[in-house]
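User: structure tokens for this one?
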Amino acid sequence: MPAKGIDPKDIPERFRRIFTENPIIDHFDLEVVSYGDGMSVLRFPYKKIFTQYQGAVQGGIIAAYADAAIAVAMLSIIPEGRDMVTTDLHVQYLRPVVSGPITARADVVHRGNTLLLGTAVVENEAGATCARCSATYMIVSPRGLA
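Assistant:
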């Protein structure tokens, strides 16, 4: 399984593919430190392959880490028989990430019938906030595999 720190049996069956059949996650080597009740903490190793020319982790990767943390936080509150998609993502970069591990902490801050709002912070190994993110997710009907 690509994600560490979580047992597939602890993930609702409808969402297991996020961790087991998600090619982008294979490259992240993410560790689920904790999740549940609309929150999550994920940890990622620093990987040189994800850096830009100055040695900092590229901004799109940082955004993906934050989005992943928010998505995992959402898993625990999505109603049975429903799925979710990201509709909006806003990232503020505060300082570069030049070493690891990298931690992304997320919380669901609004739970509507159709839209959910989550926030995340991405921290460096010293615990300093390097990026802040907010994202809107829409609750949708599950889709089949393409």
